């Protein structure tokens, strides 16, 4: 265990688990006892190390000072990787040597990857896939009803949230001035986006912490209750900012591209901004370009690591956050540390609301929408509802009727 966490601290890959353990100073092991030394008190620590980020890795397979370069998979889970074709598909077969908590033996599963929602829909209509875990167009999902005999729609609780990340450090720094960021926030029409682009399959989000998670507030609604071009223009004019402000908006293909085009129209309202859309098809490259600050704004999806408001706050707006967008606030950091002291998480709600009020004021990150997880399966497939429950792929629960 010590070696695995020491490895995380040494490598500190910005796309890896290190940001989740930003509070970790060192790890000490004495016999069977492992002690984590933290910079400050953190009542959420047990939840953090219980996530996949806290996985114990094999020293023979994972180098101590660098990322693993081998293309093969290693582990001890209920499945083995039988084949993999990058960007296209992988095949998982039951691990006959598995011994663990999962007692159900699964079936062979082929996972296919698609670049766009259109490709997912075409595969679904052609019946070349039996489960659509994600990617079906919003209109298709909205059209599925309880009377459809050949389709099962499983809807599960999900805290998946989508944000706009505003870059304070891009070369020209068009959003370096808080007035420009507030203008962007004031132009965003979440209701229109949810209805026109996503056909009401998503819910507008007005805080860092989504609805259903303790600590949720309406901070952005309180400060920017509706799309208001006049208010946005006033912010820019008062700050002496010349319009139109030219910005680059980064996004991926598929439904994200449709969302980006709608955002472009909203932000260019009354000529306040001029938006250049930049599409990046490869997800890993997109992440790296975002971290390098190549976009002034980019679309960002966040799935929580554990069920606590802290996972929507510390990693996203704490100093050294995963976004690397140049935002740091001593005020926010102080209140984050305050929230982490409470083992009774209900006592931290006032502080979480205060953090979100500050973020709404500074606008380094703008919440846009969140949604429930929707998994579509053929009626002959059982167990699809287990995939909708949370971010854990319980593939071993899948069965043919």
**CATH class assignment of the largest domain:** Alpha Beta
Task: Pick out the low-confidence regions.
Answer: none
Termini separation: 42 Å
Mean pLDDT: 93
- Helix share bin: 25-40%
β-sheet strand percentage: 15-25%
Q: State the CATH superfamily name of the largest domain.
A: Dipeptide-binding Protein, Domain 3
| Rg, Cα atoms, Å | 22 Å
- How are strands sequenced across the largest beta sheet? 9-13-8-12-10-11
Structurally, how many domains make up the residues? Answer: 3
> Helix/strand/pairing class, anyone?
alpha+beta
User: What's the SSE pattern?
Assistant: HEEHEEEHEHEEHHEHHEHEHEHHHEEEHE
Total of helices = 14
Total strands: 16
Shape: globular
* Fold-level CATH name of the largest domain: Dipeptide-binding Protein, domain 3
For the largest beta-sheet, the strand count, sense and barrel status come to:
6 strands, mixed
Task: Please state the second-level CATH architecture of the largest domain.
Answer: Roll
